[in-house]
Write a structure and sequence with these properties.
The complex is a heterodimer of chains A (147) and B (173). Chain A contains 1 helix and 2 strands; from the N terminus they run αββ. With 147 residues, chain A is low in regular secondary structure. Chain A has a two-stranded antiparallel ribbon. In chain A, β1 and β2 form a beta hairpin. The N and C termini of chain A lie far apart (114 Å). Chain B is an all-beta fold and 173 residues long. Chain B has a single domain, classed as Porin (Beta Barrel). In chain B, β6 and β7 form a beta hairpin. Classes of the chains: A little secondary structure (147), B mainly beta (173). At the A-B interface, α1 and β1 of A face β2, β3 and β10 of B.
């Protein structure tokens, strides 16, 4: 075989190989030591680790709907009625069994036994346990209701 | 030629440990140094990727039995010299076309095995020609097609094909 044939083959081989370079990796050894060839691309194989800082807490204002049902109070009013007693316009039909601490002077006429029709101008400080009249006074309550 | 005094016609006793065995057979010993490069092809994601093969160097030693002069069995080392330098072993069998002229041709089959720093296992076939420039020296040109189907250097799920052309020198002792 003539030398020109060898020279031609060499040149053709060199041209072919140089024209086919630069197509990504074909083998793991085409990649850096910490990478491997995956689908023609070098991909790192070293896992990464790091330390992060705690993030700041979030604040904000939101709106919401209360879907609860309103309860019914069953508490006891323990407040003090400081209002002024009004005028009792009802008729006292009960029997006053309290102790008469009347210190006034009875100026009426003594009638039949049992019934005093005179006008008592004293102050009755006894306890009336049968007052069925209507109390029209007003007062202010300051009690607490728990439900 | 400086190597002419080194011409050896080695004699190998094929058997010969007892008188009943066959008479001695002679073999020619050869050494070969070639270098080359070529085209590498690999498949990935349904497409073929190509690149120039790393330049390589092959050093071989072989034997050619006198009674089977068409056959040459060699073993040697190979080294890729570009990129990540690698080393491997190479076993080959060449079938020479008998010729009385200066130019001879042959076909070959081989098993390349890279062992460091990665591994590759493959098989190869090739054609070559040798031109005698001296009684014991020849220029050689060899084209090989190799397929590497196993080893740590391959992409996952991929094989690597190489079509290389090498030139060098062969010395026959």
């Amino acid at each position: 075989m003539r030398p020109s044939v060898y020279i031609g083959a060499f040149v053709a081989s060199a041209a072919l190989t140089l024209a086919c370079s630069g197509d990504g990796c074909l083998r793991n050894s085409d990649c850096p030591a910490d990478s491997e060839c995956v689908a023609g691309v070098c991909v790192g194989t070293t896992s990464t680790t790091g330390t992060g800082t705690t993030g700041t807490s979030m604040t904000g204002t939101g709106t919401g709907t209360d879907t609860g049902t309103t309860g019914t109070g069953t508490g006891t009013d323990t407040g003090t009625d400081t209002g002024t007693t009004g005028t009792d316009t009802g008729t006292d039909t009960g029997t006053d069994t309290g102790t008469d601490t009347d210190t006034g002077t009875d100026t009426g006429t003594t009638g039949t036994t049992g019934t005093d029709t005179g006008t008592d101008t004293g102050t009755d400080t006894g306890t009336d346990t049968f007052d069925s009249g209507t109390e029209t006074g007003s007062g202010t309550g300051s009690g607490t209701t728990s439900g | 030629m400086l190597l002419s005094p080194l011409l050896l016609k080695s004699t190998l006793l094929a058997g010969g440990l007892t008188q009943s065995m066959a008479p001695a057979e002679s073999v020619d010993i050869t050494a070969r140094l070639t270098s080359g490069t070529g085209l590498s092809v690999a498949g990935a994601s349904g497409q073929s990727l190509t690149a120039r093969s790393p330049a390589f160097l092959v050093a071989e030693a072989g034997i050619r039995p006198s009674n089977l002069s068409w056959l040459e069995l060699t073993g040697g080392f190979t080294m890729e010299m570009e990129g990540r330098v690698s080393f491997g072993l190479l076993g080959r069998a060449r079938a020479h076309i008998p010729s009385r002229r200066r130019v001879g041709g042959y076909g070959l089959v081989g098993v390349p095995l890279f062992v460091h720093p990665f591994s590759l296992v493959g098989a190869q076939v090739g054609l070559g020609t040798a031109v005698d420039v001296h009684r014991n020296v020849a220029l050689v040109a060899e084209g090989t097609a190799s397929v590497f189907f196993a080893g740590s250097d391959l992409m996952k799920g991929s094989a690597l094909a190489k079509f290389d052309l090498a030139f060098g020198l062969e010395i026959r002792f």
